Each structure stands twice: as structure tokens, then as C-alpha cells.
Structure to design on (1005 residues):
């Protein structure tokens, strides 16, 4: 089972290249945000000699926004979106793969319509609907709007996972006295854990990075999410490279940190579905 | 066992629903307190601060809450119309295009504020009356003129240009060693149409006649436009690369970083210099866009203002605007003291306004800015304000960015100017109907 | 496939109906509204609108700019999907191999996908700035001069494609990697015993086992890349001279900037129609309803 030295070397080189390719633009962005503004016009340095320990660009930015509040809003919204998406997608995907439903192709297919229109064109009627129900300018409107983006994704991804799972395993469990729900929890869920993890990651990201729906559906500064809060700076007339870089880093840094803590679980989750023969 | 199975599932669903509601709060119970929703499109930290302070003061005085929502200026109109279309309109909004004011007024969404406006004297071309009523309360002019490095001029023995040839010479002499003479945006965007057209206006070009017919390519205008396009092409070697990506902030950054010797902008450039590159302040002078023969000068038009929307809170909104423009107008102007050029003539003589340190320090720049309003030999134009009255067709022309295409065609693709003019005129004609 | 038998199944059905109704209402109502808008002529979302029936469609379809945008959209979608698939699968296979530092590289590989599009745009614009960009300066140093990143139509398209591939390949990587875990290792073992080389193993085991997942990935990416608005808008706004303006950008500009809501909605609906045809074709080859397989 041992790979040849050449093969292993090739893998390492490829891995390093992949790491560089993925990380370099981000690294460059962060490094540029830490240099004193003037030096950005001089020679670029891959490993900067002078770092602006005053973090002036960052301070300027943070004065302009309610960063902690917007961060909290973004997190809350994203977490609830993940929760709702998982519950709804699992139910829909499971039923679609296990039961005969008339018109399911039409139903599942039409979910994709959410992706086929410019979001701004859809956001305005959504705002109307929410206004009528009384949810306008409330984060729950944003949550529901994000769900329209994440549920179709969740359904389709989990459909892919549930489909390849043979029925025998569940049947066996049910014959042994489990109810359908029990069989689901005990047999299907563990096997599809990679899918569930994937859907969670994607839903969280779809919600965290959304700008259009959060922008249209929320009206007061107190309910803004992070992309919207920082966009008003990135769009202002005197934003310059240093502040732009700082703003970009501020949007992404929390995600990196979150990801670093949770990546262990994600990776475990991805690998958990490995079937032992 | 079956019963507990679906009970558990039910409980789970209820728990999720409950958690959702708890985390995000119960659906909005309509507040008992009256509130006015204000859309602000000036995201600068000082401007937001002024509004918040004013809102707090107003609430203390009258008990009415003023909720400020700040958005990037480009998004203000989208947000305004989205909120109206969805049935949750803002009560007061900020607009930067006369066309948007017209659109909303004609749809019956605005409240006339003629009484408020007529309390004061205003500068030229800033009130856009619609059928004799005013719907808009401007808070600034943003004329675009040219700044230059006085120290570099002195070094090379240059004089302030009054013709295109002189400008081109100066820019050429100041290009070299990684630095460039001038920066003029070329992308298909508002920055280009604000910063790069001044020379064309100075030359005496009008795009529309009094019947909103395109005259850009008629016998009188055609040679001028062609001359302008060719002049821009001659300027290109003195410009840094990547100007199709340049936005407002780009030029500010380039000038304050010492990369370019001339920069088109309004008062904000001086504010930015004071903040980020104070050494350049004393070395920075200004002049208007010259024409080819040294006979005329122009600045590009720019402006912002507030409108009051026709909502149930309209009376309260009018009262708030009256209060705000009486007590906090100057404070708001002071949040960008050199960039928010007052459109109300009484402000220039108001000692409270003049008392701002930057306004005192830059008295010459302020005098220059005021002179633009009082002289009658300055051409003030912009694409969206072409034509005899406020109308939607010039804004539609603006949004085609046809002149930006023409600039790119001539300067980057090497197309002959007459051909570029033809394409531009054709595009404008498609929206003029 | 089953029919609903037990009572707990009936609860499942009820839950299913609730979920489907919830999702479809939230999605279909705005979609129908948007299509409805295309039958009227209006200068904004608040102005009076005039019924014009299909006139917007007739006008839009007769404009060469529409067909040009359509073509650009197809080129952009095909290029990005192909590259994302090839690179994504390659990365997934790589990340499935054990090597030193694998968790770190896995984390880094996903990083681009975490970024909001506005951040990606800013990062790339900074790298490609005409005077200060790192890549611009390097190009100059290696002697190919300063490329006209955003002025040359082909290069601009290239920039937009590379930015999109950089950002969204991790989607393919993660999905494929997750799916790879579901392939029983025993199958590979058996193939190895039969002296099948790595390429053969890939083609005859991995791909067939992962076809449903691949189908989903390709379908989703096709829809998304054809409809991708943000990255192109933020990088080039459809420029230079419309060289990167595809249908979503055209729809947005018409509806929100050019005072032609009906026209913009018509463009959006046409784009939607194209994608619907794509989906129908998909369902023809990979229907949801398959003959039951018993493995």
C-alpha cells in the first residue's frame, strides 16, 4: 500500500501549490491592510518590513460601523438559517427518495427557480410579502429570504446522498423493530453525515455572505448584517486601498476563526460516512 | 412506541420554531411610539454622527423617534423605490439625481416642500421645480474642477493652463519616473461622467436642444466633440494605467499618494489631504476645466438633497425637516466642510458656517467655490441636467454611459473620433425615443 | 418506492407537505411577480406601469446586444464550470490522499469559498491594480509589460473567469470529497487485487458511484455560473464596452439603472427560460424517478 517516493513527493508539491493558490490573494490582502498607507504606493513587499501597529486603517473603519452588533446579527441569522435548512431539506430529500409522490420532479425542479433570477428582482416582492405579514425590517425576514437560497441547495445535495443509499439497511432496521424515524436516525443519518455537514457549511456561508436580501429587507442600522454594514464603507467616496483591505479582512476574519475552531468537526464529519466494507 | 416517535418529532419542530422566534424576537408589534424613517446616503462618519445627534435631540424635544438608515450613495435610489414598492416607504430620503426626484414626484410619492425652500435664496441650477412646486431640499453642490501641484509647477516653471494645449504640455512634462501628469477615469460609470467631461463642457458642447433632440452630432457640435475626444487621446500617455477601473476614491488615493500631478475632484480632495497627506495641502492649487482656445471654463455639475415622501407621517416629516434645516443644516454641512458646498446663499455669509477651521483656513478655495455660483462666465453642466427643464431623458442618457464607451473606443481601441461619435449618438438616440 | 403506510409515515407526509409549501411559496411568489413585471412598461418600481404584453420581449430579442450578452453568458458559464469541475475533482482526489499537513491544506482549500464576493472582488482588484497591483508589477518585472487587465476584453473575461474559478471551486471540492467518503474502500481493494491502476479505478469505480452527486454538482454549478452576477458586476460592471456583460447584468442595468423595469424583467425571464430548458434536458437524462435498484 505504500506509495512510491515520487508519488508522495508529487502529492506534497500539489498540496503546497493548492495551499498557495487558495491562500495567496487573502494573505496579500491582509498584509496590505497592515502596512502604513503611504507604503502601499511604494515597492510591494511580500513580507512587509513595516507594520502599522496602530492599525489605523482598522480603527478608521471600526469607528464607522457597529461591528460587534452587525457581527452578532450575521451569526444569529446564519445559525437559524442552518437549522431551518437542515430540518426542511432533510425532510424533503428523504421523502422524495423514499416515497412515490406525484409531481415531485416539478416540485423539486421549481425550487431551483430561486437561483435563476437576479436576487434584487426577487427581493422586492419578498419585501412586500414580509411587510404584509409584519416582518419588515426584522431579521426573521432575512432568515426566511436566506432559506429560499439554501433549502434548494440542501434538498438537491441530500437527494444525491440519500439516493445512493440502498433501502435494505433501513428495511433491515425496521424489520428489527425500529420505526421509520428510528431507522432514519440510526442508519441513514450516520451514513449521510458528510452530506449533512456539507449542507450546513454551505447554508451558513450562503447566509453569512449574502448582501442583496439583507440590504433590501432591513431598514434600521440596528438590524444590519456584516456585509451590509461594511458595504456602506466600501462604497463610500473616500475609501482607499488601506481601508478597503482592512474592511475586507474584517468581514472574513471572524469566519476564519470560526472555521479554525470548527474545521476539526467538519473534517471528521466529512470522513464519518466512510463505510467499512 | 410509535406514539412517542412522532411526539418527539413534533416537539423538535416546535422547539425549532420557538428557538427561531426567541433568537430573532417576536414579529414586529407595531411600536406605539411615532417614528420617522430617514434614509441617509452620506456614510461618512461625521455626517452619520450629525444625523444621529440631531435625531436624539428631536426625540428628546418632541418624543418622535427618527430612525436613520445609512446606505452607500449608489444604492439610495434602489432602496427608496424598493421600500415604496413593498409598502414600507421611508419618510425622508436622500437623492443624488434630479431624474429620481422627477420620477418619484410624477408617481405622486413626494410631498411638495415649496414653503420650506422658498424661505431662502439658492444658487443657480440647484432647485429643480416640477410644475412650479419644489419637492427637493438640496444640501450640497459637488462641482468637479481640477487640482494641481503648485510645487511641481514651480519646479518646472509652469503656468496654470487656460487652453488644452497648455494642459497637455503640463501633464506631459510632469509625467515620468513612475509618476503621471493627470488621472481621468474612463470606466462606464458615474465617476467618469463627473470627472472626465469638464473639457467638453468648456468647449461649449451641448447634448440636447430645447426640444430634447440630440444635437451632439450636428454641424456645430460635431467638430467640438471630435476635438475633445482627440484631446483626451493626446492626454492618455500622461495617465496611469487601469483608468477604466478608476472610481472616485482611486483618484483621491493617487493624488494624495503623490502619484499624479493633477486630479479632478471637488472639495473632498482637500479634506482628504488635510486628513491623510497634510504636507500636500499647501502645495495644492485649483483651476477650472479650460477649453481649447482659452476663452471659456467649466465645472461639472454635481449635487445631493433630501426629499420627503408621501407617507402617513408626512406632516411630522415636514416638521422635522423644517426643524432640521433650521438648526442642524450647518452642522450637517460641516461634516464635510469643503465637499458639501452650500447651495443656500445665506450660508456663505453666516458666521456660524464660516467659523469652521477648515473653511477659515481654505478661504481661497471657498471663495473660488462661491465664485462659481456668482460669476456668469462659468459653464456648469452635467449629462443628467441637460435640456431646458428637468426631464427623465437626460438621466436615461446618463445611464447608457455612451460617452464612456466613446472615450474607451478612442483612447484604448484607437477608433477614429468621428466613428466613436456616431456610435455614441446612436446609443443616445435609442433612449431619446 | 413506497407509498405511505404507517401512521408515522403520515406524519412524515404532513411534515413534507408543510416544508414544500413553505419553500415553494417563498420562492414562487417572487418569481411569478418578476415575470409579471415583464409584461408591463415602467420606468421604476414606483412609476405607473403600462400593459404592453409581449412587446418587451419583442424589443429585447431584436437587440443584438441581447444576443451578445447571451453568448457571453454561455462562454463564461462553460469556461468556469469546466475549470471548476476539473480542478475541484482533482483537488478532492488530492485531499483524499493522506499526507503530512492534510488538515491545514483542507482548511486552506476551502478558504476562497468563505469569502463574500465583495471581498474577492476587492482582493483581485488590488492584485490587478493598473499601477500598484502586485501581479501588474510582477508582469512588468518579467518583461511582458503591464497587461491591460480590465481594458482588453479577452483579458477582462479571463480575469473574471479566474476569479470565479478561484472562489467557487471549493464547492466542487468539498462536495466531491464528501461523496468520496461514501464509496466503500472494499471496492478499491478488490480492484487493486485485480491489478487495476489508479486511472482505471477512478473511471470504473469512483465516477460511476458518484454519478448522482456529480450530476447534482454540475446542475447546480451550471445554474449558478450562468446566473452569477456579483463577481462580474463588482470587477468589471460588464465592461470593457460590454465584453463581460451577460444576461443577469443586462437585466439588472435595465431594471435598476436604465429606467426600464419591464425590459429588465423580460431579460431576466428569458435567462430563466434558458435555464429551465437546461433543467428539462437534465431531467430527461437523469430523472428523479428511477427504476428501483436493489444492490
Amino acid at each position: 500500500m505504500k506509495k512510491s517516493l515520487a508519488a508522495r513527493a508529487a502529492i506534497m508539491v500539489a498540496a503546497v501549490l493548492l495551499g498557495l493558490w487558495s491562500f495567496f490573494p487573502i494573505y496579500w490582502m491582509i498584509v496590505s491592510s497592515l502596512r502604513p498607507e503611504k507604503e502601499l504606493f511604494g515597492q510591494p513587499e511580500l513580507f512587509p518590513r513595516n507594520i502599522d501597529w496602530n492599525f489605523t486603517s482598522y480603527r478608521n473603519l471600526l469607528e464607522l460601523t457597529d461591528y460587534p452588533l452587525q457581527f452578532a446579527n450575521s451569526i444569529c441569522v446564519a445559525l437559524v438559517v442552518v437549522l431551518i435548512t437542515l430540518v426542511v431539506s432533510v425532510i424533503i430529500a428523504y421523502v422524495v427518495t423514499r416515497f412515490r409522490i406525484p409531481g415531485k420532479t416539478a416540485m423539486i425542479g421549481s425550487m431551483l427557480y430561486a437561483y435563476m433570477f437576479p436576487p434584487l428582482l426577487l427581493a422586492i416582492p419578498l419585501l412586500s410579502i414580509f411587510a404584509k405579514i409584519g416582518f419588515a425590517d426584522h431579521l426573521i425576514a432575512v432568515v426566511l429570504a436566506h432559506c429560499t437560497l439554501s433549502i434548494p441547495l440542501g434538498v438537491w445535495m441530500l437527494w444525491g446522498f440519500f439516493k445512493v443509499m440502498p433501502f435494505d439497511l433501513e428495511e433491515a432496521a425496521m424489520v428489527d423493530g425500529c420505526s421509520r424515524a428510528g431507522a432514519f436516525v440510526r442508519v441513514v443519518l450516520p451514513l449521510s453525515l458528510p452530506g449533512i455537514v456539507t449542507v450546513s457549511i454551505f447554508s451558513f456561508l450562503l447566509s453569512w455572505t449574502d448582501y442583496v436580501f439583507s440590504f433590501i429587507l432591513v431598514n434600521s442600522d440596528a438590524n444590519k448584517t456584516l456585509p451590509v454594514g461594511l458595504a456602506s464603507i466600501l462604497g463610500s467616496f473616500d475609501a482607499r486601498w488601506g481601508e478597503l483591505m482592512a474592511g475586507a479582512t474584517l468581514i472574513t476574519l471572524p469566519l476564519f476563526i470560526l472555521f479554525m475552531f470548527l474545521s476539526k468537526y467538519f473534517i471528521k464529519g466529512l470522513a464519518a460516512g466512510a463505510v467499512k466494507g | 412506541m410509535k406514539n412517542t416517535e412522532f411526539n418527539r418529532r413534533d416537539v423538535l419542530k416546535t422547539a425549532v420554531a420557538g428557538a427561531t422566534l426567541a433568537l430573532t424576537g417576536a414579529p414586529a408589534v407595531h411600536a406605539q411610539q411615532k417614528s420617522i424613517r430617514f434614509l441617509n446616503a452620506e456614510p461618512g462618519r461625521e455626517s452619520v454622527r450629525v444625523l444621529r445627534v440631531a435625531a436624539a435631540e428631536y426625540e428628546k424635544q418632541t418624543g418622535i423617534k427618527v430612525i436613520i438608515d445609512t446606505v452607500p450613495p449608489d444604492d439610495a435610489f434602489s432602496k427608496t423605490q424598493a421600500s415604496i414598492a413593498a409598502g414600507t416607504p421611508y419618510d425622508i430620503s436622500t437623492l443624488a439625481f434630479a431624474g429620481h426626484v422627477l420620477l418619484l414626484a410624477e408617481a405622486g410619492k413626494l410631498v411638495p416642500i415649496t414653503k420650506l425652500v422658498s424661505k431662502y435664496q439658492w444658487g443657480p441650477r440647484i432647485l429643480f421645480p416640477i410644475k412650479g412646486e419644489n419637492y427637493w431640499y438640496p444640501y450640497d453642490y459637488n462641482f468637479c474642477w481640477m487640482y494641481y501641484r503648485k510645487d511641481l509647477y514651480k519646479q518646472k516653471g509652469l503656468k496654470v493652463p487656460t487652453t488644452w494645449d497648455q494642459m497637455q504640455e503640463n501633464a506631459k512634462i510632469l509625467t515620468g519616473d513612475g509618476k503621471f501628469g493627470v488621472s481621468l477615469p474612463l470606466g462606464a460609470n458615474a465617476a467618469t461622467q463627473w470627472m472626465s467631461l469638464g473639457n467638453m463642457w468648456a468647449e461649449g458642447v451641448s447634448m440636447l436642444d430645447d426640444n430634447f433632440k440630440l444635437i451632439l452630432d450636428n454641424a456645430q457640435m460635431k467638430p467640438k466633440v471630435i476635438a475633445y475626444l482627440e484631446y483626451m487621446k493626446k492626454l492618455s500617455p500622461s495617465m496611469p494605467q487601469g483608468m477604466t477601473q478608476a472610481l472616485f476614491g482611486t483618484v483621491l488615493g493617487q493624488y494624495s499618494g503623490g502619484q499624479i500631478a493633477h486630479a479632478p475632484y471637488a472639495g473632498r480632495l482637500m479634506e482628504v489631504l488635510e486628513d491623510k497627506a497634510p504636507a500636500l495641502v499647501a502645495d495644492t492649487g485649483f483651476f477650472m476645466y479650460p477649453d481649447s482656445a482659452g476663452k471659456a471654463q467649466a465645472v461639472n455639475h454635481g449635487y445631493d438633497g433630501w426629499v420627503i415622501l408621501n407617507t402617513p407621517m408626512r406632516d411630522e416629516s415636514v416638521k422635522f425637516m423644517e426643524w432640521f434645516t433650521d438648526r442642524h443644516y450647518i452642522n450637517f454641512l460641516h461634516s464635510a466642510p469643503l465637499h458639501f458646498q452650500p447651495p443656500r446663499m445665506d450660508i456663505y455669509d453666516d458666521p456660524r458656517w464660516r467659523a469652521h477651521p477648515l473653511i477659515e483656513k481654505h478661504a481661497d478655495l471657498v471663495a473660488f467655490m462661491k465664485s462659481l455660483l456668482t460669476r456668469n462666465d462659468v459653464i456648469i453642466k452635467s449629462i443628467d441636467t441637460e435640456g431646458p427643464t428637468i426631464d427623465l431623458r437626460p438621466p436615461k442618457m446618463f445611464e447608457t454611459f455612451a460617452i464612456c464607451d466613446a472615450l474607451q473606443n478612442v483612447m484604448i481601441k484607437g477608433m477614429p473620433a468621428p466613428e466613436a461619435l456616431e456610435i455614441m449618438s446612436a446609443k443616445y438616440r435609442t433612449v431619446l425615443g | 418506492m413506497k407509498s405511505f403506510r404507517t401512521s408515522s409515515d403520515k406524519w412524515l407526509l404532513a411534515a413534507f407537505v408543510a416544508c414544500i409549501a413553505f419553500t415553494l411559496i417563498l420562492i414562487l411568489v417572487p418569481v411569478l411577480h418578476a415575470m409579471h413585471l415583464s409584461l408591463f412598461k415602467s420606468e421604476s418600481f414606483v412609476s405607473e406601469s403600462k400593459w404592453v404584453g409581449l412587446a418587451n420581449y419583442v424589443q429585447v430579442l431584436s437587440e443584438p446586444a441581447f444576443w451578445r450578452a447571451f453568448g457571453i453568458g454561455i462562454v463564461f458559464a462553460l469556461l468556469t464550470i469546466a475549470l471548476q469541475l476539473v480542478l475541484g475533482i482533482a483537488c478532492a482526489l488530492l485531499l483524499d490522499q493522506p499526507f503530512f499537513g492534510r488538515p491545514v491544506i483542507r482548511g486552506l482549500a476551502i478558504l476562497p469559498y468563505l469569502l463574500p464576493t465583495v471581498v474577492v472582488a476587492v482582493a483581485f482588484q488590488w492584485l490587478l491594480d493598473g499601477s500598484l497591483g502586485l501581479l501588474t508589477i510582477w508582469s512588468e518585472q518579467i518583461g511582458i509589460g503591464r497587461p491591460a487587465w480590465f481594458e482588453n476584453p479577452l483579458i477582462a473575461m479571463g480575469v473574471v473567469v479566474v476569479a470565479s474559478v478561484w472562489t467557487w471551486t471549493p464547492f466542487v471540492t468539498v462536495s466531491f470529497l464528501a461523496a468520496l467518503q461514501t464509496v466503500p474502500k472494499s471496492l478499491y481493494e478488490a480492484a487493486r487485487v485485480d491489478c487495476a491502476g489508479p486511472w482505471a479505478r477512478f473511471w470504473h469505480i469512483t465516477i460511476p458511484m458518484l454519478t448522482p452527486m456529480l450530476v447534482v454538482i454540475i446542475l447546480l454549478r451550471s445554474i449558478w455560473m450562468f446566473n452569477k452576477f456579483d463577481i462580474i458586476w463588482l470587477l468589471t460592471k460588464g465592461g470593457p464596452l460590454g465584453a463581460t456583460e451577460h444576461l443577469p447584468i443586462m437585466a439588472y442595468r435595465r431594471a435598476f439603472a436604465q429606467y426600464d423595469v419591464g425590459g429588465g424583467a423580460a431579460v431576466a425571464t428569458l435567462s430563466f427560460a434558458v435555464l429551465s430548458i437546461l433543467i428539462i434536458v437534465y431531467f430527461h437524462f437523469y430523472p428523479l424517478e428511477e427504476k428501483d435498484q436493489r444492490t
